[in-house]
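We store amino acids, tokens; thus:
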Amino acid sequence: MKTSIKKLLEDVRDGAVPVEQALLALKEAPFEDIGFAKVDLHRPVRQGAAEVIYGAGKTPPQIVAILGIMARHGQKNVIITRLSPEAAREVNAAFPIEYRAEARLGIAGGFPEPDGIGRIVVATGGTSDIPVAEEAALTAQMLGNDVLRLYDVGVAGLHRTLSHLDDLMSASVIVAVAGMEGALASVVGGLADCPVVAVPTSVGYGASFGGISALLSMLNSCASGVTVVNIDNGFGAGYFASMVNHMEVKK
């Protein structure tokens, strides 16, 4: 929507759109109150991306209603996170979505063309981390990024990580997803010259404490340039990586 607002203002400047018409377009309510939700319609203007629907705890009719409001206001590409397969089937019957079961992610409107400044690499320590990594990768793709997946490249077999040095060193952002002791983020952070977003997962045995061990390891990383999101928060990592990959020089 940032682009559409900019185009509207340019059209006013060029005389293609009357001032009154542009003023009417800008006067639209910043949100729409539908009782159980207040749908944020101006989030693309403020943050550059539409509101994301958190699917857990919402009924399929509620999700469909929110999707309808967003579609009516021109928000074509919408992400629904933490969506169960059963809810996805009900939503899809009323409003077409693509469902990615591994990431528990619903996608409305398809993927936009990548327009970021570079490539986001999403790497996992092991295969068990892939569901969280897929949430991150798909979120980044939905926000207009070129994404490369490097799965099962953890430190238990460091040669697997080192075999992808070119990919890691050419990335604009790296999302490192790992459970157990969470060492992947530090290794990657020590190799790459770009920001690293570390995602601890709840994968691991008893003393991993459901991801707390990996979280603390990542927070205590001695590698510079590593930031950490919450346990299993692939969405947050993908969103943050997209923001970094869309940074422009502000004059």
Notes: The mean pLDDT is 88.
